[in-house]
Structure formats: structure tokens, C-alpha cells
3-phosphoshikimate 1-carboxyvinyltransferase
Amino acid sequence: MPESAQHWPAPTARTPVDATVELPGSKSMTNRALVLAASASAPATVRRPLRSRDTGLMAAGLRSLGIGVEDSGADWRVVPARPRGPARVDVGNAGTVMRFLPPLAALAEGEVAFDGDSRARERPVGPLLEALRALGADVEDAGRGALPLRIRGSGGLRGGTVRLDASSSSQFVSALLLSGARFERGVEVRHEGPPVPSRPHLDMTVEMLRAAGVSVDTSEPDVWRVAPGPIETGGIAVEPDLSNAAPFLAAALVAGGRVTVPGWPEHTTQPGDALRDLFSRMGGEVSAGSAGLTLRGTGEVRGITADLREVGELTPTIAAVAALASTPSRLTGVAHLRRHETDRIAALVREINALGGDAEELSDGLAVRPRPLHAGVFHSYDDHRMATSGAVLGLAVEGVEVDDIATTAKTLPGFPELWAEVAK
Ligand SMILES: O=C(O)C1=C[C@@H](OP(=O)(O)O)[C@@H](O)[C@H](O)C1
Ligand SMILES: C=C(OP(=O)(O)O)C(=O)O
């Protein structure tokens, strides 16, 4: 079959868009909720979880450790248990599974093996493994500091104070905090190095731990202390995924009209909340009401200069909008994106330029200058957010095809159907 036979022709908006898009639950909240509920004192319900490749892998990983994750209608019921090996965990290409489960596995009795997609073997996990060793875990990674790896648990972990450089992923810190209350001495994580990215995701970890009755001290910058003690979730409700709102809100920005996302939380730690500000600066009009959050396009798409370190996962969508803007953009602070699902900086520059655009790699981001785009294939590199960025470009540029739209199932199965609601 020729490659093009599998391509997805991105729909072009011929009129302004007018849609209300119900988004599934947040990947980051769902996978935190599953890990917390797995270590809790009593069974709990995770309400309105995301069901996608990343969360399915988390549920499967927990089940392989002996924890119950049962379907109960729209929800997931988690029945905690002492984790046990022997077990094999497939992390796929999910950073949250690759980083959040090793600390839990270190609490297991028996051996737990981890592996994943070939890209997962290239994503950083070394500082987390070193930290686990310092806390008393027996980790075998053949000196690679990467997958595949094995953790030989003896049913508990000493815990205590650990120093690590989390500048390549905030998930190292979140991972240690999520299981830290179950370590004998709890955990004190001290970050030392260039700034930690994705701060809102750390706030999410801390907030969800505190909501589960865990004591977390964040009074010192770059230091997190989790006291040992029980985890009592009482059930966890998952918010809609605001990072996945990005391409849908972008649709109204680039095509004109309006898109509403119902259930936008009044208070949230999700980085996607920053879209309200970012997309306003790029020309959108944002309003919040009982129907949800609405973005109206004004017909003007402006470029933006922004440090996206805190909200790195929004970069692919912002870069797509930037490629359609009337003024230049400079997106910085996201060097760590080179080790995400793909090297997102290189991939975005290559694909924007392949459509006739004018993008340039910076050491820690990209610069995009206005230039008319033309038809072509937008490659997704097995990256859900690259694929949805191709869809955004296709709204405004006739003849854009995304090579692998199915990769959106990592965090948003049903993306093509939801997108069809917007681009009808
Ligand atoms: O903790 C989380 O749920 C996440 C943290 C961030 O990871 P990095 O800090 O590695 O960028 C983010 O990019 C990822 O999509 C989800
Ligand atoms: C970086 C991302 O995912 P992961 O959880 O695999 O790190 C992402 O979703 O943009």
C-alpha cells in the first residue's frame, strides 16, 4: 500500500467554526489518580478518567503489580493491594508510566521489569533511577540510565532525602512524591540544576497528594517533603484535559468563529489553563461562563514571544498557530522537548518548513516567521501533539495531510471524530 493511502486529509474550514467540544479527562490527572488510588488505604473510584493509550498502559501496569483496576461504567474502581512481582510493565511511550511506576515497583515484593516503545528507550529516566537507588532500591539498568530496566523489591523502601537534577523532566519529582508517603521515612526531594520544567504539573502532584490527606511541605524553593503516612483519596474526579483543548481553541483562532469547551475548571493546576492568556495574546477573545470557556477568533492571528518552560506540552499547537500568524513568534524555554515523544523542536521546524513556512530551531525552542503555507504531508513522528498541530494547519491551508492521525490515541482517541465537529 502506498504511504499516502494511510494519510488523513485534514479538513479545511470554509466558513468560521461554531462548535462546543466535550473533551475527555486529563491524562496527567488520570494517571496520578490511578497511582494514588493504587497505594491508598481503601478502594476508590476515579471518576471520568481518560481512556486512552497512556492511561490504559497505566491501568495495565498496575494490574500486573496485583492492583485491581476495574471498569465501573464510565468510572474506574481501583482496589489497592501491596504491589508484587514478578511483573512486566509496558510503558509504551508514556512518560507518566515510565516515571511514576518505578517508585511503586520499588515498594513491591519481587522483580518488576520495565520496557516500552523504541522511543521510550531514548527518553530520560536516569536521574530518577539514581534517586531510587539512593533511597534504597535495587535497580538494574545495565548502566544505561534508560529502559529496559528491572527493579528488585523487597516489600518496602527506606526513603529519606535525595538530590536530583529534574531539568530534563518534572516527572522525576512527581514520581517520587506520588509514592513517597509509602516509603518508611517519606521522601525529601531536592532539585539541583537548571530550572525544572512544567511547574504546574508539580503543583498538580502536590495538590492531589494533599487532597488525599498526605502532608507535603513546599516551603523551600526546589525542595519537596512528603511525610510518611496513609493515602486516603475518598475518590478522585478527573477534569477535562485542557492541554488537549489547545487544538480545538486554536481552530477558532485560525478559522474565525467560536469554540466552547464545557467544564473548564474555575481553579486548576493544569498547564492548559495558560491557553487563556496565550491565545488572547495571539488574537483570540476568551470568555468564561456557565457554558464553559469560549474562544472567539477575531480574524487576526498575531505571533507571540513566549517562554513556554512551564507549559511545554502546549508548544506544538502554539507553533502551528504561529505558522499562520501575521507577525513573527519566538518560543523559548523548551529545550527538554527534544526528548519528548519525538524531538519536538526539530520536528515542528521541519514540518512547518515542508509546507513552505519559515521556522528555525533555537537551542531551547523555535522562531517562526510569517510566510504563506501550501499543501503537503505533515509528519507526526508518532507524536499525538504533532498530529493535532497538523490538523490545525490544515484548517487554514488547503491540501494538508497528516501521515498518522491514529497516534492521537495516546491521549485523545476519537480525535478525528471530535475534529469533524469543529471543521464541518
Ligand atoms: O506530569 C505530567 O503529567 C506531565 C509533565 C510534563 O512532563 P515534562 O516535565 O517531562 O515535560 C508534561 O510535558 C507531560 O505531558 C505530562
Ligand atoms: C510530553 C508528553 O507526554 P508524556 O507524558 O509521555 O511525557 C505530552 O503529552 O505532551
The mean pLDDT is 97. The chain has two domains: 3-24+240-422, 27-237.
